[in-house]
Design goal:
The complex is a heterodimer of chains A (199) and B (98). Chain A has 7 helices and 1 strand; from the N terminus they run αααβαααα. By secondary structure, chain A is mainly α. The mean pLDDT of chain A is 81. The chains are: A mainly alpha (199), B alpha+beta (98).
Chain lengths: 199, 98
């Protein structure tokens, strides 16, 4: 690119601005890693609870939450440290994604801590997750996230209707996490990969 | 009377306009990213970034990342205002009847 070319017209000028902004925004997209990690972890955990319940295994699966959350947190932090730290752009949208997921994490932690007081605490997590996935989908204009959030809201409704804590809600929850978290996360990563190949 | 606004000479240069577009879209951006996107040489880019800095349109932060120096650029409020005025002005050039 020439440094001091003054002869370009208004149309070329606008095209230059548009293309630079588009390229920069593509680079600053969110990633599906965290959704894939947490979606897989939680759906595996819910399936484990279901199997333990159905086989009448004398083991309280609820203690598995703590190592699972620790594993997810370590995975997310490692990814942040090894991958996101190397990114060359930090845009306003990135900070908004961060705030959305931070508010989800705070809400989720409060519900988990006080879960012993409310029987429906587990279902609220789907509602919070749906909010976060929906807002992220709107921000990055990515429809699979919108569908993912609808799946999570539907998961919450189905779990409420199933007379929680019926064990069937565990299967519904696992399916909800796979189609509300893992699948949209994989689709986002595939889209980012395609964008990179096209550049 | 001339219906067209004067274009800001600091921004009406291809490379400087590209730099401003990138920093406005990104918020805070690494020198190497701007170099990759604009295809400009490091020397050229440094000169133009300095001009934008002197005009008060961007802030330049130099720091170390591991053992390597890193230069980060960020648009200032003055820079964002100037960029918005520039875009309004070129839109007027494209739609002079409005």
């Amino acid at each position: 690119m020439e440094n001091e070319k003054q002869t370009f017209n208004a149309e070329e000028s606008l095209q230059l601005i548009t293309s630079m902004i588009r390229e920069t925004r593509q680079k600053a997209n969110a990633t599906g890693f965290h959704l894939i990690l947490w979606g897989t972890l939680i759906s595996l955990l819910l399936l484990t609870f279901y199997i333990l319940n159905e086989t009448n295994t004398p083991f309280s699966g609820k203690y598995l939450w703590y190592p699972a959350i620790a594993l997810g947190a370590i995975g997310s932090m490692l990814y942040g440290f090894l991958v996101e730290r190397k990114r060359k752009t930090h845009c306003f949208l990135d900070r908004i994604y961060g705030m959305i997921w931070l508010s989800f994490f705070i809400s989720w932690t409060i519900v988990l801590v006080f879960n012993y007081k409310i029987d429906l605490g587990g279902i609220l997590v789907y509602v919070f997750a749906a909010n976060a996935v929906f807002l992220t989908g709107i921000l990055i204009k990515f429809k699979p996230f919108i569908f993912g959030s609808i799946v999570l809201w539907a998961t919450a409704i189905a779990s409420f209707l199933l007379d929680y804590p019926n064990t069937g809600h565990l299967l519904i929850g696992a399916a909800g996490m796979i189609f509300g978290y893992v699948v949209p996360g994989i689709m986002l990563n595939n889209k980012i990969k395609r964008n990179k190949q096209g550049q | 009377m001339n219906p067209f606004k004067n274009l800001d000479p600091v921004l009406h240069a291809q490379l400087r306009l590209a730099i401003m577009s990138i920093v406005i879209a990104a918020g805070k951006v690494d020198f190497s990213f701007i170099k990759e996107k604009t295809g400009a040489t490091a020397g050229n880019l440094s000169v133009q970034i300095n001009k934008l800095k002197e005009a008060g349109y961007i802030e330049v932060e130099k720091r170390f990342k591991g053992n390597y120096p890193q230069t980060l650029c960020k648009a200032t409020t003055k820079g964002v205002d100037a960029f918005e005025k520039y875009v309004q002005a070129i839109q007027q050039y494209l739609k002079p009847g409005k």
